[in-house]
Amino acid sequence: MREKSILTDVGSMTLPHRLRYMFEQVRGYELIGSRNHPADFNLVRAEYINTRVRVLALLFSILTPLWIPVDYFILPESSFGMMAAARLLFSLSLLALWVKASYVFSLRHARFRLLMLMVIPALFHLSAQFILGEHLSDARLASYTFLPFLIITIHCVFPLTLREGSLLALITIFTLSLDELIQRQMFTLASLNNLWLLAVIMSIAIWAQLSQLHMQLKLFEQATTDALTGLLTRRAFMSLAESELSRSERYNRTLTMALLDLDHFKVINDTYGHQAGDKVLVTFSRQLKDVLRATDIIGRYGGEEFIIVLPETRLDEAEQVIQRVLDTCRETPVQYGNHSIRLTASAGLGEVLVDVQTSILYIDEALYQAKDSGRDRIIKVAGERKLLTE
Ligand SMILES: Nc1nc2c(ncn2[C@@H]2O[C@H](COP(=O)(O)OP(=O)(O)OP(=O)(O)O)[C@@H](O)[C@H]2O)c(=O)[nH]1
Fold first, then answer.
1. Does residue 95 form part of some domain?
2. What pLDDT digit, counting tens, does each position of 284-337 carry?
3. Distance of CA 263 from the midpoint of ligand 1 (Å)
4. Ligand 1 center to 251 CA (angstroms)
5. Residues 207 and 287 both lie in one domain
6. What's the pTM value of the predicted model, to 2 decimals?
7. If you measure from the C-alpha of residue 274 to the centroid of ligand 1, how many angstroms do you get, rounded to a whole number?
8. Which residues lie closer than 8 Å to 208 by C-beta, 6 or more apart?
């Protein structure tokens, strides 16, 4: 990110630190697990996975019974009835999955449905193994032998983390191998050969999953993050702030919001140049991230204006936090070449009561009062939205 290129001196790092830095740059940890993914990204991914699960479930529930007439001609009479019943059961299970997956609440839901999408065909494969037995060596029944490879290939369609992809792969391969495990044929040459092939295709599927996830994360980041400061864009901020407001209303908790603006920022640009101004913005954003909690939502509202939502924070508590931000800003000059740039910031602060957009109007008024009354200070909006001067 641009922020890091300005502030990080990679050349002076030791080798382990440099490797770790590179790992962080490509966001390797974001591909391993979803712990570091933003909550709204998880929801976007959940919807993405769920939609694919639905489409595939519907597709296979329609296609599977269509093969019954073909089975009528190629299967031995003794197996046909059982196989047709298995196909219908498989088709109905997938249809039920399609109906159940009509909406998604969380990534956990989507993951479970994905697991079902893999386990149901694997169980169908198992039933085919038991019903058809030695007939499977008949070349006309090749489609039954190919089913495990088809199931594994479907894994490619989903953007999954390494942990999710590997777990899903292990469960699928385990289910597919159950009949060989039960019949103690796991270690025959033919079984090992099959297993090896499944593992190779699965590795490629996991690679495809990680590539999709990586691309989605990048697109999501570009759409929601300000390129210079790494903070949320105004649109992404508004969307998160609205959901935070719903949550605070549901649990009857206080939600506080602050607008901060760097004082006389134009003078910094005019005196030291635009790049110095950029460095000041990056440094101030980093100070915000350092002082505020990880759960606070920070956005770049405009050029040198920043917006913050502090969940579950009373007005007096929020005031202390924002005061700490202003103190840090005043006491930490930004080094730019030989210059030591001193700066201050002003803030408007208030509770979010009705909706985010209206609260911003009131808090913006407070910010302008802070500017008018001398800068480097906070003005609070009271609960009844009367301006209280500090
Ligand atoms: N370097 C840099 N400057 C920016 C960026 N976005 C906006 N600006 C500049 O920020 C300055 C804002 O100036 P003003 O709105 O007059 O505010 P101010 O000088 O901070 O004055 P007060 O807010 O009244 O204290 C303008 O000169 C913009 O060009 C940016 O991304 N980088």
1. yes
2. 999 999 999 988 999 999 999 999 999 999 999 999 999 999 999 999 999 999
3. 9
4. 39
5. no
6. 0.69
7. 10
8. 155, 156
Protein residue with least CA distance to atom 4, ligand 1 = 303
Distance of alpha carbon 282 from alpha carbon 276, whole angstroms: 10
Token output for 42: 């998880």
Measured in Å, residue 266 CA sits from the centre of ligand 1 at 5
Ligand 1 centroid – CA 190 distance (Å): 71
Mutate to test the pocket of ligand 1, among 262, 264, 304 (most ligand atoms within 8 A of CB): 304
Last residue of one domain, picked from the residues 163, 189, 222: 222
Structural domains of the chain, count? 2
d(CA 363, CA 261): 12
| 267/123 same-domain check | no
Q: Which residues constitute the domain of residue 115?
A: 33-222
Query: Does residue 256 form part of some domain?
Result: yes
CATH number of 287's domain: 3.30.70.270
Asked whether the ipTM of the predicted complex exceeds the cut of 0.90, the reply is yes
Q: Please indicate whether residue 277, judged by its CB atom, sits closer than 6 Å to ligand 1.
A: yes
| Ligand 1 atom 6: residue of nearest CA | 303
Give the closest residue to 261 by CA, choosing from 308, 306, 321, 300: 306
- Residue 9 domain-assigned (yes or no): no
Is residue 2 situated within a structural domain? Answer: no
d(CA 388, CA 374): 15
